[in-house]
Design a protein that fits this description.
about 160 residues, alpha/beta, 2,3-Dihydroxybiphenyl 1,2-Dioxygenase, domain 1, 2 domains, four-stranded mixed β-sheet, 3 helices
């Protein structure tokens, strides 16, 4: 039996303010705006397991093939989540390699984020986006020690 086709779609992130989050992800981290939609509450409520009214506005940003969906709700009161920590089951963080870690860290607060105290080294740091999502920033020297990714062009003949 043939294996069903599976294609990565996106990672969803609930945000309190879409404009503020776009400024952070686009301005600081180089994500690019792709598209947005406001789906009807009818099917959305069932899929997201939320009672109506919902008022979802989804904005899609792209970076290096990763699609980040910013979820904002006009008809819901958002609940603040706990600070994500590395030993809490579930998605812990997003990780990005950067060419100039010091320069990027110097701009984090200007774009509405914060640096996690005690995490900064010459090679890495943890920061939080405007809503507290944890992001790992790694010096791009890290890229030199990674093996080729499975399925990448460099592995196409293997």
């Amino acid at each position: 039996m043939a294996r069903p086709r599976i294609v990565f779609n996106h990672v969803g992130l609930c945000v309190a303010d879409t404009a503020r989050s776009r400024r952070f992800y686009e301005g600081l981290l180089g994500f690019m705006y792709w598209w947005e939609l406001e789906p009807p509450d009818e099917g959305t409520g069932q899929l997201l397991q939320l009672d109506k009214p919902i008022g979802l506005h989804a904005t899609y940003l792209v970076r290096d093939g990763l699609v980040l969906e910013l979820l904002a709700y006009s008809h819901r009161v958002l609940r603040a989540g706990s600070d994500r920590v590395m030993d809490q089951v579930g998605l812990t963080h997003l990780s990005l390699s950067v060419s100039d870690l010091g320069e990027l860290l110097a701009a984090v607060e200007r774009f509405g984020g914060s640096i996690v105290e005690g995490t900064v080294t010459d090679q890495s740091a943890m920061v939080r986006d405007p809503d507290g999502q944890l992001l790992e920033l790694l010096s791009d020297a890290w890229l030199a020690v990674l093996p080729p990714r499975p399925g990448s062009a460099t592995n196409a003949t293997i």
